[in-house]
Amino acid sequence: MRSALLQVLVLAAVAYAVPSPxxxxxxxxxxxxxxxxxxxxxxxxxxxxxVRIGLKQQNMxxxxxxxxxxxxxxxxxxGKHWTPQQVADFFAPSTESIxxxxxxxxxxxxxADRIRVSPSKGWIEVNATVAEAEDLxxxxxxxxxxxxxxxxxxxxxxSVPKHIQEHVDLIKPTVHFNHRVASFPSGLNKRKNPDxxxxxxxNGPKTLDQKVTIETNATNCxxxxxxxxxxxxxxIDDPPAYPQDGNSYGIVEFTPQAYVDTDLDKFFKNFSxxxxxxxxxxxxxxxxxxxxxxxxxxxxxxxNLDLEYAMALVGNQPVTLLQAGDLPMGASFDNWLDxxxxxxxxxxGGDDPNQDGIYPxxxxxxxxxxxxxxxxxxxxxVSISYSQDEYTVTPAYANRQCTEYGKLGLLGTTxxxxxGDYGVAGYGGSCLKGGQPDANGxxxxxxxxxxxxxVTAVGATQINPGSxxxxxxxxxxxxxxxxxxxxxxxxxxxxxSDAVAGYLKNSPPPYTAENYNNSGVVRAYPDLSxxxxxxxxxxxxxxxxxxxxxxxxxxxxSIITLVNDARLSIGKGPVGFINPAIYSSDFSWVFNDIxxxxxxxxxxxxxxxxxxxxxVTGLGTPDYPSLLTAFLMLP
Length: 635
Ligand SMILES: *[C@@H]1O[C@H](CO)[C@@H](O)[C@H](O)[C@H]1NC(C)=O
Ligand SMILES: *[C@@H]1O[C@H](CO)[C@@H](O)[C@H](O)[C@H]1NC(C)=O
Ligand SMILES: *[C@@H]1O[C@H](CO)[C@@H](O)[C@H](O)[C@H]1NC(C)=O
Ligand SMILES: *[C@@H]1O[C@H](CO)[C@@H](O)[C@H](O)[C@H]1NC(C)=O
Ligand SMILES: *[C@@H]1O[C@H](CO)[C@@H](O)[C@H](O)[C@H]1NC(C)=O
Ligand SMILES: *[C@@H]1O[C@H](CO)[C@@H](O)[C@H](O)[C@H]1NC(C)=O
Ligand SMILES: *[C@@H]1O[C@H](CO)[C@@H](O)[C@H](O)[C@H]1NC(C)=O
Ligand SMILES: *[C@@H]1O[C@H](CO)[C@@H](O)[C@H](O)[C@H]1NC(C)=O
Prior knowledge:
Blueprint: H1 2-15, E1 25-30, E2 39-42, E3 48-55, H2 63-71, H3 84-91, H4 95-107, E4 115-117, E5 123-129, H5 130-137, E6 142-145, E7 151-154, E8 157-161, H6 162-165, E9 168-172, E10 206-211, H7 227-234, E11 249-254, H8 261-271, E12 281-285, H9 297-314, E13 319-324, H10 333-340, E14 381-384, E15 388-389, H11 395-411, E16 414-418, E17 431-433, E18 436-438, E19 447-448, E20 456-462, E21 474-475, E22 485-491, H12 494-506, E23 522-525, E24 528-531, E25 535-539, E26 542-547, H13 549-569, H14 579-582, E27 591-592, E28 621-622, H15 624-632
Parallel strand pairs: 11-13, 11-14, 12-13, 14-16, 16-20, 20-24
Antiparallel strand pairs: 1-8, 2-6, 3-5, 3-9, 4-5, 6-7, 10-26, 15-19, 17-18, 20-21, 22-23, 25-26, 27-28
Helix pairs in contact: 2-11, 8-9, 9-13, 13-15
The protein binds 2-acetamido-2-deoxy-beta-D-glucopyranose (8 copies).
Residues 212, 215-216, 270, 536, 543 line the site of one 2-acetamido-2-deoxy-beta-D-glucopyranose.
């Protein structure tokens, strides 16, 4: 394989040896937001950078259509998911793109033996000195140091020749600043306003540091949510004793976040005793492991919450833990995507050294194996309770990752992201002014990847104090506020345009374009919601109350997993990307519409939950038997 590739490159050297004149340059990408708290100095001209050029993929303009064709109830090919090979072939960059970029590199003095095309054809890699890269991209490279000891390499913007632009999505390492999802969740109001670019960009659940000492029961679900409360709320069946072999449910966690064995058993002892001793199936991505060196809510809160509830709700259905990143480096959303889809890996041996964990990691305690690329088939359902502020990513980076979620949908995977815990505000309650973070900003700050139209965004609800599981829920307004709003990057997908237009027409929010993009032509979220308040979670050897959309996403994931089990048992396939279905008229009766509460933030009351879809609770919470019936009726 390798030698065949080299031969092609040698031939290419002959074809492109004649340098073409340097064309006019155009700005290709500019940093989304300036990093704060980092010190920059020029990078030595002779340092070598692993430059990776992400080529424009073919047929991207058809992604939405082909995805809808396998996921819209009225489509003839509903459920006819693609094979990984079909996906790779359909979207692989064109020969013209590959040749044009190679020619550009050759004309800049890179000999053919220095240029390599990735096996998926998605990326071209070349090792360039800083001087060469600066010349190639018309930019200046800096090394950025953070007081935490982390360092990053990057530039503020870069350009490419005009005739090359249409062939290139993005180039790394350049403007994309630290998107590793490493380290600590927020805990209880710790890290109120983390600096952009700090290594801590995770949106964790919140806890009231209040030990649960009284006995939980079916009548106090307004104060203590347990698996039985959720079953009562959404009419969820007991999990099947003998789940279908082919079914799978994945939970993504980022090291050092880790679950604790004894806490799982403590939880099971009270709420699902037959599961004592049961553990998730660990898939280690880039050295990911269940670390035990550090134990506290900050290190275990997210993992314990996600796994205790996912495992209790699906019972004997094995849950796969996609644990990403080692201790020193951590990982980004791209790293778990690499692990389930080899065609996404930017190159054997690594992604962007700035924003993705790059393995092998040669620091002490680092993972020294090769990067995890296509090591596990994507589970039918994946729930991820992590996010970052959308303003921290460039549109090119966001789009490249987002299209990957679309491809997972084509393969038949449901990807669920929690919508965030700060209402219309960003992480820690931060807001924007003119698109940039600002202490007094009143512009709402949406989250990513949850704003990608190819994931299913899950918001949070609550049982109102004094109410029961039979009463209507409200948007969550205890400790956290359901993340929701309108993207500043993604256009509106067809499947939700009627729902969003209906909301803007019937309940026009009293805000202007200064607060959010109110044009009606941008992606809005969440898509649906589930309870996110007062979860009883075994943690640090006791029970604590935990709040967050972090709880809501694994619950919806469990419900979809049960639906998939039922479909598999009658010879049908998994539901895959659910958004076109759940917004369609076939599903208009399967959700409990949430019409009270809001998602305040940025010094405003935020949006209101209203009749029909709203940017607080989406379509509402699922009624399991109805959702099941609707999905069983589909082929
Ligand atoms: C770039 O350099 C690294 C480290 O020396 C090497 O492993 C890799 O193969 C090189 N890549 C190319 C495209 O030459
Ligand atoms: C867990 O079970 C024990 C023993 O039955 C009980 O005393 C305790 O209150 C329960 N805890 C919760 C949070 O339900
Ligand atoms: C449930 O717990 C509450 C305390 O939160 C208690 O007042 C009530 O009597 C309990 N109900 C039952 C049926 O045990
Ligand atoms: C985590 O554990 C390591 C090893 O015991 C220790 O050095 C480090 O300070 C701990 N980190 C935190 C934040 O507690
Ligand atoms: C990789 O790391 C493992 C465990 O830390 C160690 O035993 C092994 O010797 C290392 N291998 C190399 C090639 O450094
Ligand atoms: C924010 O507003 C406060 C009070 O009006 C003012 O003192 C402060 O300078 C403002 N901060 C910024 C960054 O504009
Ligand atoms: C929410 O509802 C209240 C009461 O009806 C109304 O005054 C307010 O304008 C609404 N806010 C939004 C964002 O729609
Ligand atoms: C809203 O989004 C649309 C579509 O991306 C864009 O054309 C428009 O400029 C945006 N409006 C504002 C105020 O940013």
